[in-house]
Amino acid sequence: MNVLSRIWILSIWLLCTGVLEASFSGSTSQFFIEKPVNQTVNEGQDILLKCKVGNLQGRVQWTRNGFAMGYSNEQVKQICSRCELMSNHADGEFNLFVKSVRLGEDENFECQVLPGPNAAMKVPLRAPAFVQIQVAPSSVTLQDPASARSGSWISLACTSADSNPKSQILWYRGDDLLRNAEVTEDVYSGSRNGTFTTVSKIKLKAQADFDGTRVKCVARHPAVGTPRTGTHPQLEAEAKLNILYPPRPPILRGEGISGGGTGGTRGLGPFSVRKEQGESVQLQCLSEGGNPLPEIQWHRNGSPLSIGFPGQPELQVIGSMKQVKSVLQFKARAEDHEVVFSCSSFSAQTMDFPLVTEQKLKLNVTFPPQRIIITGSSTATAEEPFVFRCQAFNAHPLPKLQWIVNGRHITQGITVDRHIPTSGKYADVSSDLTIEFSPNESVVAITCQAVSQGHFGDPLTKKAEKEVVILKAPSAPLIRGLPQNKTLREGQLLTLTCESLDGSPKPHLRWFIDDQREEIKQANYTHLPYPKSMLQIVTSREDNNKLYRCEATNTANLLKPVFANIRFNVFFPPKSLEIKLERPETHFNYDRTRAFKQAKKFSDAKYKIVMAGELIRLLCVSDSSKPRPLFRWTENSVVKDANETDFKPSVFGGEEIRSVMEFRARPEQNGNVYECFAHNPTIEVPHEISAKITLVVLFKPIFPAEVMGTYTVVEGESRNLSLKATGNPPEIEYAWTFPSSAEKNRIRQLKHRLTITDTQRSDAGNYFVTASNSYGDFKTNISVYLDVLYPPKINYITPDQTIVEESKAEFRCSIQANPFTDDTISWHLPDRPGGLLAWRSRKEVSVDVINQTSTLTIHFANREDRGRVVCMANNGVRGVEVTKTSSLIINHEPFILKEMAFTKFAVQRGSPAYLRCRSISMPEPSFTWHMTSKLSHVTKQVHPTDPNRGESVLPTQAVHGQINTYDSLLKLDNIRTEHYSTVFKCVAENGYGADEHLISLTEPGRPEKPSQFHIVLTTPNSVRLSWNPGFDGGYNQTFALTVYQQRTGREVKKKTLEANEMNWWLNETTISNLVPETSYLVRIQAKNKAGLSESYEELFVKTRALENAVKEEEVMPRVMIISIVLVVVMALVLVLVFFYCFCKCLGQHHSTPTLNNRNRIKTESQNVLHSTSTNPLIESYTPSKYNRVLKKEFLYPTFEKGRTRSNSTSSSAKLDYKELARSLSMPGQEENGNGLPFAPNGDPFGLARGSCSQHGTLRRNAQRHNSAGYNTTLEDDVFEDSDSLGYPPPTQSIHHFSDIASGRQLMNPIMAHTSIGSRLASSGLPDSTYIPLRHSSVSSTRQLQPPLNGFTPTTSHKDMREPECQQQSSSFYWGNSSPTSPIRPYPYTATLPRKSPGNNYQVPNGHIHHHHKRTRANHSARFHGLRKLNSADVLMTSGDDSPPLPPPPPPPMTSFRHLPYGSKSSMMV
Asked: Which of 201, 250, 1258, 1336 is the most exposed place for a label (fewest CB within 10 A)?
């Protein structure tokens, strides 16, 4: 049962069901108003299935292929994404829209209506619909038919694939429908479900007119409508028929065939055509029809044309006309006479035998004789008869013979003989001529000519010629071409020409050498206009002094030829060289070398075997050469000299030469290549030959010189000892000897290589190796030392030590290590600030290399040396570094830290407070607290608990992480008003001493400005700064750092920094990304939550120049510049000394000074420091390279000889800075009326013209001269190590003391070694004078500041500074104020402490008194090693003329007291 039947039955059942339901339900039942109908559509089209229900009571849904699709559109979409439910409940419409229907999915649909809830029968209404989906064929194919012979059957099959319903196939030939053909059809299932594939087959009988036609099959299908051919190419397929059939008989065409040309005749046989020899003949063979086209074959006398036939057929195919034409074209030949030509056609696929043309062609060719000859003698004598015969063969028609002698026709003495063959195809003829020759003739030309009649009446001619020579003997020939000197060089081309001018017949020329009868065949011979033979010779040594002979002969002088001779010389170099070996000392000639030669298979030609030390002679022997060659020797391409040269006669007229080189063989000559060269200098292009040998020197083994005496290896590693020797013979045997302590099982020997695995210390020692080779039992011994390296191991370190301060401590550390050097053991004190570097002068390290021990001795150990003492060992082996630690305990008196964090506290009123007192002490100190009211001056001690006042002392606590550091806390439960006016004193004491510290309370507020703002390090692109924080005001404070560019004032950087209150030395920062060699202004200000500090600190910095930057002006080398400067300075000094002496002499002659001189002397006497005849400013300073040589008059030229100065002083006397500046003026400047250098812009010091100096007090490349012309320039090396140089020097202290002191006293304060005072002292200039220079020296680390102690320079002093320099400032550190450098003691110096708010200095009666107040400086004076100054520390000059007394020397180093860790004050000497 098919699908349609099933659908029909289902429809009837549904209809009956609906009728029954309607009968039961009556008029109230639901029913279909419109049911879906069956549809036929093409696949991919859209359909709409309608379903309308009346009196709707139940729910409506659609099914597809038996599966329910749901009641809502969303449910339908889930089942079929291409389906859409178009419903209208009010009208009862439930239409289903299906988009792009698909075969196999969308055929069966049904609209179902469920019964309502009140329905009597629960039977649903159903309305099915079937969709017929048509699918057009996917392809139509037709296979190409095979070729078929005419009359056979052809079968074709056409396939229409995958269609629904099946396709109908029609057949066409061309555009004509094939109706009566035999057609069969088969239907199969398609590749898709529900599709069909139709195969239609047709059978045709092949005919000739079917060939080339096309057969087409067309598929008809309802999906595409009624087809017409060409409308749906995808539903059509065609094939081309190839029918095989034979051609028609061929046709022969050509000139003279079937009346088609002249000269052709036709009898009973073939056509006859007449042609002359050489005339063109063209024949055509035409074949029409046939598939495939036939091949055409030409026949000659019934046989196919041979391959050698002169004319090859040309084939022409005309496909559109089914024609093949072959054209045969050739030249008529004599052998083509009476030949019959025809053609045939044949196709193997359609014919059993070829078809031959009915027409045939026969040629009649006329031609002259094929061959004509003249027989008779070629030579003759005069006046004698000679007979000559002429014969002509194979001619058509018969020819006539004619004789011609020297251009004249001969008719007499002729006899003719004719011969005609019986066939009539060819004819032969002959003729004889009898003639006598004249004696005046030398050569006679005889010609025989055959003449016959051609086809067109023109003559056909062929002739033969013969020369007859009349005999006459030649004369002697001539030879040309030899140079005048008859000398040639080997290889030179020589051309000799032999000429013969007469003789008949012309003579033949031949060349011979010496008496040989063998002719030289290489000669080039010509006989026009006369016989000439040219012989080219590439000269060789064999040609030297040879005889060359040229002979001339003809028929007349065969028995007695005539000739000419020639001889020449040839220069030639040696052709080969050989180097021979001789042994003058015969005792070395024994079997050793011969045995070695046999073993190594050396050839004598390449190698010469000798013994080391043997005397040998190398002989370079050349073969024959002319003239004698020159020799040269090389050894490995290096030219060597020969010892001697000898020679002897040799072959070819040359000489054999020997060059000798003699020497004793050495081992290093083994393998050297000795080459001998020889060449003949007379040859234009010297041809140098050579011979070489390789010298094989037998010698005992030799170890290379670069063999190390010691080999090192790390313990546990493997080591290869390779001691390879060289020797000859190279087969060397090695024998090793090990140290007795070495373990043999870890040592492996392989010839010259010794491998030690897992090396141990016991393997160290001397290793011996013996090398020997066979010939001569050569032996060589060598020894090396194996050094086993291992990392250090510390065996012992001195245990912890406890000592008293200022005593000696000693620690010893013993290790095991290899290698061990002085630097293997190092000592470290991690708990001491600065480590070992800080007390380099007090430490001593001694090393015992033998016992591998290092001893650290600390002299005068102080409290800062306490803590861990670490012995560190590292010898670089495996990077292992081992340490052991001991401790140094130093008992000392307490030292209370007096930093701002422990001195001043800010607490709100009513809040509790903890006052911290921190002391460094050993052993632990005991603390006591005292409170003193500033109002009542009542002092009381605070006990650990004081409940009445709310004040208590907490137990002492050790500070974590700090050695011997203890804290004591005073607890104030409630801050009252009186606490702000109370001084709290903390006292710490132990068995070695005591220390006290004053602490104050204040209310919280703004912070104080930082102090000690200075430069730590300067680089080209950065600067590191440090400062001490001020009082923080009771809040956490930060620091605002701002950087300005000095030249432009532009802000370049700004940053905020955190404070470190407890560790003040850690307050540092680095400013990076700066420009090299540029000045900056750095400003720092403190800030907390209450606001900014009232003032700020400023610092001028300048980055360094790049070290590798080369200035453009430094074009000369530094050594040359220094040399020139020294020479100029020395010359200038001599001139100045001479000028000074001259002025002194001149001053003695003029005792009365002029007015200007008196004024000048008066000014000088008022403004220059007074002294006796010995100037104390010079004597009070350390001697230098300046004041050792120069006298005081040189440094102070304004002091004239013989002038006395008053030693009395007054308080109103002031230094004349203008006078001092004048002494530093530039040479050549004019002076104004005040004795100062004059400048056009009104600036007497020239300060406005330049910037501040970079390098020192004076500019580097300029010299400053005083008014007397003397050079007072400070050399650069005075300031080379300056880190904290500031200028002007702090001379205000001198004025301060001088104004108060009774009597004028010269005080010489000494500064730290980094200050300007020590440097001016080393230069020989006074440092106690305030000198405003034209270029103020500004250090890269500390800049200018106003003078200290309240002294303010006058306005004139300020005006003398540059505008830029006026903005710069610097803190100058006196005595113990230098923050970074240790004190360098100078003889005859005194040090003043830095003035602080708590210190006042007065000098009554020439003494300095120090008034003590309770400040940090006062307490530090006790524990920091400071001592108060007394009258012995001051340099004075008395009122009389006696020289000043020197101060006492500084105290010894043993009395120095060093600062504890954490102090920021330096020592004072």
From this structure: 201
pTM for this model (two decimals): 0.37
Beta strands 125-134 and 39-42 are parallel
CB atoms within 10 A of CB 1363: 9
**Average pLDDT across the chain, whole number:** 75
Task: State yes or no: cis peptide before 292, omega within 30 of 0.
Answer: yes
Nearest to 1344 by CA among 1027, 1100, 1084: 1100
Q: In this structure, is the dihedral angle defined by the CA atoms of residues 80, 81, 83 and 86, taken in order, positive or negative?
A: positive
Return the pLDDT at 893: 92
* Residues whose CB falls within 8 Å of the CB of residue 407, separated by 6 or more in sequence, listed in order: 445
Q: What is the pLDDT of residue 1109?
A: 47
What CA–CA distances, in Å, run from 1281 to 1288, 1313, 1326? Answer: 18, 10, 20
Cα torsion 12, 16, 22, 25 to 10°: value is -130
H-run or E-run covering 1178? helix 1176-1179
For the segment 400-456, what is each residue's pLDDT rounded down to a tens digit? 889 999 889 988 888 887 776 655 567 788 899 988 888 788 888 999 999 888 877
Structure-block tokens of residue 980: 């702000």
For the chain, list residues with pLDDT below 70: 1-28, 226-233, 256, 258-269, 420-425, 586-605, 684-686, 775-777, 834-839, 945-949, 1061-1065, 1107-1119, 1146-1469
Cα angle 18, 19, 24 (rounded to 5 degrees) comes to 95
Is the C-alpha dihedral spanning 803, 806, 807, 810 positive or negative? positive
Q: What is the spatial distance between Cα 933 and Cα 947, in angstroms, rounded to a whole number?
A: 19
Residue 850: what pLDDT?
92
| Among the listed residues 340, 365, 366, 357, the one whose alpha carbon sits nearest the alpha carbon of residue 266 | 340
Task: Identify the pLDDT of residue 948.
Answer: 60
**What are the counts of helices (DSSP H) followed by strands (DSSP E) for the chain?**
13, 92
Measured distance CA(787)–CA(779) in Å, rounded: 26
Residue (of 296, 454, 452, 451) closest to 364 by Cα position: 454
pLDDT at site 80: 92
Nearest-angstrom CA–CA distance, 1263 and 1075: 30
Give the span between the Cα atoms of 1421 and 1424, in whole angstroms.
6
DSSP states of 577-646 as a string?
Answer: EEEEEE-SSGGG-SHHHHHHHHHHT--TTTEEEEETT-EEEEEEEE--BBSPPEEEEEETTEEE--SEEE
Please name every residue paired with 1028 in a beta bridge, in sequence order, or none if there are none: 1011
Residue 860 per-residue DSSP state: E
3-state secondary structure of 588: helix
Pairing mode, strands 139-142 and 47-49: unpaired
d(CA 999, CA 899): 11
Q: What is the structure's pLDDT at 1061? A: 57
Task: Please write the tens of the pLDDT for every residue from 301-350.
Answer: 888 988 888 888 988 888 777 889 999 999 988 888 888 989 999 988 88
* Amino acid present at 884: K
3-class secondary structure, 1246: coil
CA distances in angstroms from 37 to 34, 99, 111, 165, 1125, listed in the order given: 9, 17, 11, 20, 126
In this prediction, residue 1445 carries a pLDDT of 41
Q: Which residue type is seen at 287?
A: S
Which DSSP category does 367 fall into?
Answer: B
Cβ(343)–Cβ(303) under 8 Å?
no
Pairing of strands 993-1002, 904-906: parallel
Integer angstrom CA distances of residue 420 from 393, 398, 399, 591: 11, 8, 11, 100
Measured between alpha carbons, how far is 1329 from 136 in angstroms, rounded to an integer?
123
For residue 1362, what pLDDT is reported? 37
Instruction: Pick the closest to residue 1013 from 946, 894, 1088, 1095 (CA basis).
Output: 1095
For residue 84, the cross-strand partners are 97
CB 747 within 8 A of CB 754: yes
Residue corresponding to tokens 């139509």: 140
Note the Cα 903 to chain centre separation in Å: 64
Which tokens sit at 868? 């861990």
